[in-house]
Amino acid sequence: MKFFYQVISTPTADTPGTSVCLNFPDKRYFFGQLSEGTQRACTERGVKLSLLTDVFVTGRTEWANTGGLIGIVLTLADTVSTSMAAIEEENQKKAARRAQREAEEGKQSKPREPKEQEGEGVSQRGNLTIHGPANLTHTLATSRRFVFRKGMPVYLNEYDSETLAKQMSIGAEDPFEKPSWSDSNIKVWALPLSPHPSARSQVTQPRSQSPRKRSLDEFQESEQPEDHMDQRTKNLLVTQSIVQDMFNSTWKMDALHETPLAQVKMPAAIFIRNPETKDLEQYKGPVPGGPDALPDIKVLVRKPWPGATVESLPTTSPSKEAVCYIVRNHDIRGKFDPKKAQELNVEKGVKYANLTKGQSVESLDGKTITPEMVLGPTRAGKGTAIMEVPSSEYVDDLVSRAEWKSPAVTTELQAFIWILGPGVAEHPKFQEFVTSMSHCKHTVSSPDHCPNYLAFTSSASSTVRLARLKADSYAVPVHDNVSLPQPGTPNANSESAIAARQNSPLQPLEPGFIINMEPNFGFNSDEVMSRFNPSNALDNIPRSVQHRMEVIRTRVAKPIFQKKLHEHRTQWPGADAEIIALGTGSSIPSKYRNVSATLLKVPGYGYYLLDCGENTLGQLKRVFEPEELREVLQNLRMIWISHLHADHHLGIVSVIKAWHSENFQNGSDSAARPETNMAKILQEKRLAVVSDDAMISWLEEYSQVEDFGFDKLLTLSAHPEVNGPKITTSFSHRPPSHPRHSVTFTDQSSPLTPLLKSATGLADLLTCRVKHCKGALAVSLVFSNGFKVSYSGDCRPSDKFAVIGQDSTVLIHEATFQPDMVGSARAKRHSTSSEAIEVGRRMQARAVLLTHFSQRYQKVAFVDKRIPRKFESNGDAAAKEPADADIPFDDPQDESASSNDVLLSDDINTAMSRQRLGVYTGPVAGAMDYMRIKVGDFALAQAYAPALEKLIELLERAANEETERVKQARQQEENARKAKNNKKWAKQMATATAAAVAAAATETSDVQTAPARSIWSASESEEGWETSDYEECS
């Protein structure tokens, strides 16, 4: 049986961690750091997640190792859900056909029992087990407010020194004979390393935090008596139960439950049943928390989804243990010897097969023949050690482990995969250990040995060519294919690190590198990706794009355009401010677009980050050189998170940690008593994080796992209120275990108001609720120089947003769907590009930047805004697609929450579907990753958009063609391999191929086909693009 390891990622700005995939014919296993960017790396490399059953996280539980885990799990859950839905649909079609056939034959249809084999297959594909260090379960449980899937059980195994010590066979000759975990393919031994050997026996004790609001009895599922369980075990049971509810709950959104009105937790959609018609009607009377007395009645409400019922988690504290793994496949039975079987008088056929399966049989002369009598010698399973050593502090424990003396662990140990922190390879004891294991092959992945190459070549290729076309908006992503250690890392320019690599037995890993284990051990570099060289792409621009650029340059050089551009640059507030698009895609990262993040640079004020999707820090590292990035982090004033969907905030922990590291290089005293005086808090050096209260709670809960700088944040929960046509916002800050402080930007009588403005650099911060998911917010940032930026996050086009964004200089609005996909946009509570522009018209924004494009549907961001049109029909085919599963929608957003906000709609495209959109006269631009645009240059961005988007379109076409070519080549190789081993199959394939070729020749004999045109040389004439230069850019 063939199986092998293949490298997915090594540390770069794009993929901060190291991950490898263990491939068996029926299963996949991930080992290493599931860091941010891992999912995108799988997309780039074509790694399929459908066979993934187990994930083994190495190292410590910290965001650098687990930041991509949630994205991987969500994608896998969606893959399983889609597969199950397809299977169910196919089964229904089969049942319908069978019923029709039996009806025609006059037979009575009988339901069929499902096949056991099919059920087993579904079960195997529908489970995921995550292995790793302490606090891994707690980390996943913190995401319960924004992660919700059904039908894919997720199990967790945590490994720590104390628990593993209890499982050892005391007094046995080899105490490690039994592995920590095993399945039908492999055995795994977990090795938790401590920074100091003496610390290995210490039990992690939880630190004091806010008390839980639910009792442990609600989650108790253990068969052990409670007295026999320590508190840590009890806490683990609680968090495991929560994670189970997150991925395998029976909760249904459409189920209504009867409850007394006084017990309803607001906000909520409340229904009553009409006593006459028995129909459900929305309740419109007094509600809990309101000024009016409540009637003593029972109402119908939706039961909260599981994540919403858990107010807080059991407490924990950071663990310093770093988990490593030694992996061995099971021993392989020897090869069957038919001569021996014949000599022993064994009948050929089934008995031969049973012997090869390890079963005893009876010979023709009545003797019992065991497998050992006819099989060759058993081959011991081969082992690989996957070792993460975060720092030199862990080396002493590494070299002194008792496992290195265990035959069960070390027999046939073939290779080490070292995942090393900066400077570890220089440690003398580490080098001695590697030398002592010279009979093994040693590979390494670390910033000291692997350069900061461009891991996402698809995105890099498009960005490099965009930089060639418009250098003031795009630049070659920051990278270095040569320098080691990597520039910008703690070990950069280290002479000792350079010396340690000379004559080192450690072979650096690269993506695509294969370690073959069976049938023959060895290394294979055939699939290693070549490092992207920007110089090869800079001069390679399609001819049709060059032609567009020539026309556009003629247009923008005309006096009327230059006059308008000058007015924008000199008269617009904040014309010198710059918008930097870090992530412009939706839902999941793709080859060309990362998920949501936009950086706002306002000279004289600082930097402001609007949303912070996965690997936003990596995107920053691609835009800014190390010294420039230091300046950005030192002057980062605020992070705004629009809502709690994973694609908008999973990068925030890494950014906060980098900010904290840059601004508190000597460390902050996290053990000191937290400051509770709001005036002092506002005067300290802090990073403002503004969002819904649930976002702040997530950060606070995760801070128990890792000290990433939470104690130095100015956390502000936004509380917008609608009063007729006006919307006001107050903010609250809650120090840990202390009452909230309330502040606003408008209370002139409060001494905190000027401190709040000084702390954030803003004159005002306006927010409103929008229609997308629970807690979704839009925002307007107002600066004292008159510059105003409004950011939608994800939402339907909103009148409320148009109100708070009135007279914005720039509107940044999501445009997930194309104009003709209103049905899809409404179903998923997003906006089309036309709807986004209509919001800009209503708020009278000077310019509109469209972003958050669907990775599936939206290929081109350009919108012809000059032609008035009606709101498109809601009946497009994709409208039936299910809405986002995470954070079930709040029904109050479908109706007016109260009479106060009846004047302002959450969706301007409801009753107005037949009205015409107004004409928006300002410039509109579509964002691409790494795009930098100055506010005063929006007219230029709009003018050049047709050329830039044509380039992207052609590059995507070329990539699809190349993917198809590679797919066909691999299929041909597979067919050739099968043909070599199966002559009958080869003959059938040859006959089928000849027939297909003949049929194709017959169909095309009378058709004259034009030669295929290369995207690079074709000069295309397209509908909607005027190649003359008379057209003025508006």
Automatic annotation (TrEMBL):
Its cofactor is Zn(2+). It catalyses: Endonucleolytic cleavage of RNA, removing extra 3' nucleotides from tRNA precursor, generating 3' termini of tRNAs. A 3'-hydroxy group is left at the tRNA terminus and a 5'-phosphoryl group is left at the trailer molecule. SUPFAM superfamilies: Metallo-hydrolase/oxidoreductase. Residues 1020-1034 have a biased composition (Acidic residues). One of its GO terms (molecular function) is metal ion binding. The keyword Kinase does not apply. Keywords: Endonuclease, Hydrolase, Metal-binding, Nuclease, tRNA processing, Zinc. Residues 199-209 have a biased composition (Polar residues). Residues 6-68 form the tRNase Z endonuclease domain. Its EC number is 3.1.26.11. Residues 608-853 form the Metallo-beta-lactamase domain. One of its GO terms (biological process) is mitochondrial tRNA 3'-end processing. Pfam families: Lactamase_B_2 (PF12706), Lactamase_B_4 (PF13691). Residues 99-118, 873-883, 964-977 have a biased composition (Basic and acidic residues). GO terms for cellular component: mitochondrion. Residues 88-136, 196-232, 729-749, 873-900, 964-985, 997-1034 are annotated as: Disordered. Belongs to the RNase Z family. This is ribonuclease Z. It comes from Penicillium freii.
